[in-house]
Amino acid sequence: MSVRYPIAKGPQEALTSPLGRAVRQREAAALAGADVEFVREPSGPPFATRGAAEAAFAGLVDAEGAPQVAPEDRYCELIEMAAPVSGRPPRAGQAEPDFKAGRRWPRPKRMLQTQWRLTVAYWRPIDPARNPVAAPQARAARKSAERLDPAALRAMAEQPLQPVKPQQPLAIGLFEVRPPDAPHIVMPDE
Fold it and tell me: In angstroms, how far is the first alpha carbon of the chain from the final one?
């Protein structure tokens, strides 16, 4: 049996009042009346232990070692995430030696703790306002003489890179070579 994922605008709505449920993208798009994307997002407060999270979300997730949720309703999952202890992320870079109390390195400070969060997998309708029409590629805009406003630059920076032309298949393999005196022959290169 396949998982039937809810169709909603956010993870909380997916838990409480979804538009419907679907297994495949085309089913979800038909129910939502728009294109959809599959997302997995955290929802709810963090918990210090898995047991506390299981108790809070009883009926949505399986308890440790005992399946309680029907196979088609398994769109929620508890995951363990790292959270900073002091509210700030640990410093990056090389540690400096500290010759205190006869030791070269100080005792490490615990900078991260783990917390349990509920993640919800669901189909989200694609909002046309959130996904604007593709802006021109930066390489083409760079050649034009007009100045771009900040919103256009931001749209160009957020879109994925697109190739100028489709990549051609390789005529020969990575470890093969054509000898200069017989270009019609492909030889392995060792």
Answer: 50
- Considering the domain architecture, whether residues 74 and 136 belong to the same structural domain is answered as no
Q: How far apart are CA 107 and CA 18, in angstroms?
A: 50
**pLDDT tens, 87-140?**
555 566 666 677 777 777 666 666 678 899 999 999 999 887 765 555 666 666
Cα four-point dihedral sign 80, 86, 12, 66: positive
**For the segment 134-144, what is each residue's pLDDT rounded down to a tens digit?**
566 666 676 67
**Does residue 38 belong to any structural domain of this protein?**
yes
Q: Are residues 137 and 71 in the same domain?
A: no
CA 123 – CA 14 distance, rounded (Å): 9
List CB contacts of 18: < 8 A, sequence separation 6 or more: 6, 7, 8, 122
Q: Strands 112-125 and 36-47, how do they pair? A: antiparallel
Please tell me whether residues 78 and 42 are part of one structural domain.
yes
Q: Is the pTM here over 0.90, yes or no?
A: no
Examine the domain organization and report whether 47 and 134 are in the same domain. Answer: no
Residue 21: give the domain boundaries. Answer: 5-85+112-125
Asked, for residue 13, whether it belongs to a domain, the answer is yes
